[in-house]
Amino acid sequence: MGGHMPYQLEKGPYFSVTETVLEDFDQRIDVLIDLRLQKDADAMPTLESDSLDTSRGNIQTEDQRRYHQNRHWYGKTQLASGYWGPQAPFDPVTNPRTGFWHNWYGDAEGIVRETYTRAIEVSLGIPHDTTVTDKSAIVELARRPEHGRFWPIEIFTRCPAPWFEGWVTWQSEGPSNGHVTVHIHTPSHDRSNLLTSPVRPGYTTPEYQDEINFPPPLPSDGKRGMWVVAHLYQELVNPPFAGPVVSGPSEALDGHPDQKAPWKLPRFGAVYHSQGDIVTVRPSEPNGGVLADGRPYIP
């Protein structure tokens, strides 16, 4: 979870520790169960690691790392009790962004949860079924002869992007060999020509699949794959008019030439307000996706 990214692609200390956590079979299963149970993000392993205590500038202690995660990444509000409550509702003037993400508001925590969930499921070769939370049942699914895989998971974050989304990609190198790559795309800049929904209504290319209109594909369906995890809609909200801020009618200051309405500092660039369910979509090959068996080279 970088604070000041000097490059557009980053792994860094936080995601390196997360990868190490997921290298252990039992820990990977435990994380999947926690994700399916929607446990508090603070209960997830990684940020308590002592190896992070001197990893980044002024974010050196566990408490500072948890503050960074909850406030800056997820936009949560810290209560007087010390616990973290949900982020304040979207308002284009008073609350136009989640955490420190430039010109974007949405459920970053939900997208991260869903992205990690899908990546772990792919790495184990098990179907997406959030009702299964018993460890022995998940272990049995993961170790069935027709699957029997435990692929490594690599995690990157990329900035800038117009809105927050996750990507899960994988490639098989045989029945038990393969790898999964996670990309967390985070906002920074304010405009984009990208489609504002990952879902393509009426799209009929065979390999395209969204889980609103189709059942989720099993991870073992193909040797390769790409999924995008995002809110269903990204609404472009124009910035408010830069002018005096008054609490009542404009006449409130009439007759008082010595009183002036305060001005709110202008905000440059429009805001993306991500809304709707968090969905997982398999893009079609013409739109940048990949065929389940790849595309052969034919000389």
Structural features, described:
The chain has 5 helices and 10 strands. By secondary structure, the protein is of the alpha+beta class. α2 (25-36) crosses α4. A hairpin with a 5-residue loop joins β2 (77-78) and β3. The protein has one domain. Mean pLDDT is 81; it is low at 189-193 and 247-253. The strands form 2 sheets. Strands 1, 4, 5, 6, 7, 8, 9 and 10 form an 8-stranded mixed beta sheet that branches. The radius of gyration is 22 Å and the shape is globular. The protein starts with 8 loop residues before the first strand and ends in a 17-residue tail after the last strand.
Record the SSE blueprint.
Elements: E1 9-10, H1 12-22, H2 25-36, H3 62-73, E2 77-78, E3 84-85, E4 104-105, H4 108-124, H5 135-142, E5 153-161, E6 165-172, E7 178-187, E8 209-210, E9 224-237, E10 271-282
Parallel strand pairs: 4-10, 5-7
Antiparallel strand pairs: 1-5, 2-3, 6-7, 6-9, 8-10, 9-10
Helix pairs in contact: 2-4
What's this entry about, in short?
The strands form 2 sheets. Strands 1, 4, 5, 6, 7, 8, 9 and 10 form an 8-stranded mixed sheet that branches. Strands 2-3 form a two-stranded antiparallel sheet. It has helices spanning 12-22, 25-36, 62-73, 108-124, 135-142; strands at 9-10, 77-78, 84-85, 104-105, 153-161, 165-172, 178-187, 209-210, 224-237, 271-282. It is α+β, with helices and mostly antiparallel strands and 299 residues long.
